[in-house]
Amino acid sequence: MRLKTTKNEEKKAVEEERRCVNCGRGIKTLFVQYSPGNIRLMKCDNCKAVADPYIECEFMIILIDLILHKTKAYRHLLYNMLNLDADDTKGVFLKSSFVYFLLDACRISLISNSRDDWDSSGSPLVSIWTCGKVLMDVLLGNFVFISVIVLGTKFLLDLSLDITRCKEIMLAILISSYFKLFLIAMMVWEFPSSVLFIIDVFVLSSNAVALRVVTQLQTAGCLAVCFGAHAAKLFTDRWVSP
């Protein structure tokens, strides 16, 4: 009897992995497909609105709403596209982490170039030392960043955390840092150093929206946690590379 109940609970959990973008409640299915290209969007039982109207939208519309920091677009991206509730997010987590750290290394390189900190002697030892310094800066800065996010979410926002919950929050933070992709353009073309500050502000605000969507807590608290994490990371960067 217990085994049967457990299987029913697992089946229900799998069915409710998707979320309504309006209220955030779990939903069994987002649409019903009658034939190829012929679908009917389902309504949420809680708010009585269409659960996810972004299903019929082009990606460019979703991207614009993400840039505008609409929580509906973030729920669609995190739960209905990437499905953070699923157990098979390891690949997405590893790829997002690699891209995130790589873009962070690009950011540190741009800051060092703007300060003329690079040694142009071309010596292999100097190049190895520089790469090691950038790697240490990336790892230490992000360790402090992640620690502040986790501790702030647990104590400041008073949210109970486990391994699965921490992974869900960190994946949301990684995905919502997509503004860092603009750093690639800065590596190719010249931009004023103030653009780095603008990108950092957009990443901070995007992280706060993603944290709010995942934790379903107040915006002010999520913004405070993200601001503290980014400030701690900035101070760590200044300490490692004065």
Automatic annotation (TrEMBL):
Transmembrane segments: 134-157, 169-189, 195-214
Job of this protein: Mediator of sterol homeostasis involved in sterol uptake, trafficking and distribution into membranes.
Keywords: Endoplasmic reticulum, Lipid metabolism, Lipid transport, Membrane, Sphingolipid metabolism, Transmembrane, Transmembrane helix, Transport
Keyword Endoplasmic reticulum: yes
Residue stretches in coiled coil: none
A cellular-component GO term for this protein: cortical endoplasmic reticulum
GO BP: any one term: sterol metabolic process
Family note: Belongs to the ARV1 family.
Name of protein: Protein ARV
Principal subcellular localisation of the protein: endoplasmic reticulum
InterPro entries: Arv1 (IPR007290)
Cellular compartment(s): Endoplasmic reticulum membrane
Pfam hit, one: Arv1
Membrane topology listed for this record: Multi-pass membrane protein
Keyword Lipid metabolism attributed: yes
